[in-house]
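Private note to self, pasted from the team thread so I don't lose it. Backbone tokens:
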């Protein structure tokens, strides 16, 4: 699974972002910007073995992935919750659960959701959002 990003020249800098993860940084060169986004995601994910790979694309498009897809999904869920200003209890309530442990297991990478469950979890965090899948 890969997450889409954008890289743009901004004056003397290259601005780079992965919007779905809410990660933005910059570099003096395109190559440095790719390294900076990798380092930023690695640091924010704070998970053993997440080791992000950057896949440069055409123009301003690129993608990030990790061999540990479960850790990347856990990081995605955590970042989406944080970006929408929700607590674990808030998301659990939106899912109709009393215990926040069920959702927390996905964020901690202890459980990996199916595509249908991932869509449900993301919808609880962002009711107006849609999970869009595409092939490369």
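Design output:
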């Amino acid at each position: 699974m890969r997450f889409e990003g954008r890289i743009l020249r901004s004056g003397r800098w290259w601005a780079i972002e992965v919007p779905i993860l809410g990660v933005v940084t910059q570099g003096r060169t395109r190559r440095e910007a790719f390294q900076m986004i990798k380092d930023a995601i690695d640091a924010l994910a704070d998970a053993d073995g997440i080791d992000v790979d950057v896949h440069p694309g055409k123009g301003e498009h690129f993608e990030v992935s990790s061999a540990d897809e479960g850790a990347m999904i856990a990081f995605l869920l955590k970042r989406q919750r944080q970006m929408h200003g929700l607590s674990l209890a808030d998301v659990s309530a939106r899912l109709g659960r009393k215990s926040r442990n069920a959702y927390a297991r996905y964020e901690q990478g202890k459980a990996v959701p199916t595509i249908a469950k991932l869509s449900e979890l993301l919808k609880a965090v962002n009711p107006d959002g849609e999970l869009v899948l595409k092939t490369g």
